[in-house]
């Protein structure tokens, strides 16, 4: 199934990454960033990294607890804009 809104390189991703939202673990796989780097980028509104959303709450305090879903296309666009 092909969509005109998807970039051509989308099909170069492994099948398990071709979905609308990524978990932090999947984002780490694609970007190579650590969890702490991803959390820092998410918390910085000036970074351009998507904040994502918490799909299920976790224990403890802070906005980065629980299962977080990040929009995959926005993560990829962020990576394309990096030097």
Describe this protein's structure.
Helices cover 31% and strands 13% of the residues. The chain is built from three helices and three strands. The protein starts with 20 loop residues before the first strand and ends with a helix. The model has no long low-confidence stretch (mean pLDDT 84).
How are the secondary structure elements laid out?
Layout: E1 21-22, H1 24-31, H2 35-43, E2 53-56, E3 67-71, H3 72-80
Antiparallel strand pairs: 1-3, 2-3
Entry summary:
With 83 residues, the chain is an alpha+beta fold.
Low-confidence stretches: none
What does the largest sheet look like?
3 strands, antiparallel
**Average pLDDT for all residues:** 84
* Share of helix, binned: 25-40%
Radius of gyration: 13 Å
The secondary structure category is alpha+beta
Strand content: 5-15%
Question: What key phrases describe this protein's structure?
Answer:
83 residues, alpha+beta, 3-stranded antiparallel β-sheet, 3 strands, globular
